């Protein structure tokens, strides 16, 4: 649909293909890609955007399959005006566009341990939204507060309780764009923190297809069984193990493949479409269920519409995040 979009000092690009902006290199066009210059620019745009236009905030696309028909939404992607990093004592405040890796390194140099962020390839906005974490630490362990712009263009401050951070999930009000987060990490010796980050990078390269186009873990690790009396968010039953047990390591559909190196990583081998990737994931879910009775839940978010010729086949959803 042709629209007159509100003015922006930053960059507005109608019908922008999103494949270049996602790690998996798939995705049809956004109705408009919005790259605000700074906070004031974002607030003004949001306040003036007609209420019937969905807003989809996007980080660096490291946890997304954007379907081939694209997103019927204003896709907000934050850049330079939102990537500052400041350290005061043990507190680190970072813009939502700052990369997790940069934040971890700056924090470590100042003697603050946010090392778990070093190997997560996303941005701070995506990290807070997804409660990103690894090696036993999560955003929920270190988040002090976050700032966001509401769909109506107001700046609000959110506490961890407001966000209700849990395993790869949070409650962010619909259409809200995170713009900044403050973390508090334990003190650490900069040299020791640098060594820990180097070890984590090495471990990733040894165990995960870090040089392929992926979106990290495809499925959540199935929850521990409540009958043991442990919390439901114990995830020691690993998704990769149940995928292996179903004989699906290396399984392919079109250009999509479950990685030979790590069977819970789905990769684009070169010419995959979003439909190939999502279709392969659904086949894996079905076969794992048929062979073990375990229902795998997607960790990668799938958003947008299927390409017109796919419509009605596999995916009935539209811009809803799933
Ligand atoms: C090789 C690889 C390894 C990975 N390893 C890990 C890991 O160990 N641990 C882990 O937790 N994740 C991992 N991931 C997944 C991914 O990096 C994280 O989920 C990351 O936090 C996503 O950040 P992003 O900026 O790419 O967000 P995107 O993928 O762009 O978006 C993800 C979600 O966050 C929302 N979002 C993004 N920015 C904002 C914002 N400013 N305001 C509001 N909402 C926003 C989007 O709307 C979407 O719902 C891995 C991915 C890859 C490719």
- What fraction, in percent, of the residue positions are helical? 10-25%
Class by alpha and beta content: alpha+beta
Give the CA-CA distance, first to last residue. 24 Å
- What compounds are bound to the protein? flavin-adenine dinucleotide
Individual helix count: 8
Secondary-structure element string: EEHEEEEEHHEEHEEHEHEHEEEHE
Query: What would you say the CATH architecture of the largest domain is?
Result: 2-Layer Sandwich
CATH topology of the largest domain: Uridine Diphospho-n-acetylenolpyruvylglucosamine Reductase, domain 3
Walk across the major sheet and give the strand order.
Answer: 6-7-12-10-11
List the domain count as a whole number.
Answer: 3
What does this structure look like?
The chain is of the alpha+beta class. The protein has 3 domains: 11-80, Uridine Diphospho-n-acetylenolpyruvylglucosamine Reductase, domain 2; 81-191, Uridine Diphospho-n-acetylenolpyruvylglucosamine Reductase, domain 3 (2-Layer Sandwich); 211-320, UDP-N-acetylenolpyruvoylglucosamine reductase, C-terminal domain (Uridine Diphospho-n-acetylenolpyruvylglucosamine Reductase, domain 1, Alpha-Beta Complex), CATH 3.90.78.10. The chain contains 8 helices and 17 strands. It has helices at residues 39-48, 100-109, 124-130, 139-142, 160-163, 190-207, 239-245, 274-292, and strands at 11-17, 29-35, 55-58, 64-66, 71-77, 85-88, 91-95, 133-134, 137-138, 143-149, 155-158, 177-184, 213-217, 252-253, 256-258, 265-268, 301-303. The strands form 5 sheets. The protein has a 5-stranded antiparallel sheet. A 4-stranded mixed sheet has the order 1-2-5-3, with no helix packed on it. The chain has a 4-stranded antiparallel sheet with strand order 13-16-15-14. A hairpin with a 2-residue loop joins strand 14 and strand 15 (256-258). The protein binds flavin-adenine dinucleotide. Flavin-adenine dinucleotide (FAD) is lined by residues 23, 56-64, 78, 96, 120-123, 125-127, 129-130, 132-134, 172, 177-178, 210, 214-216, 301, 321.
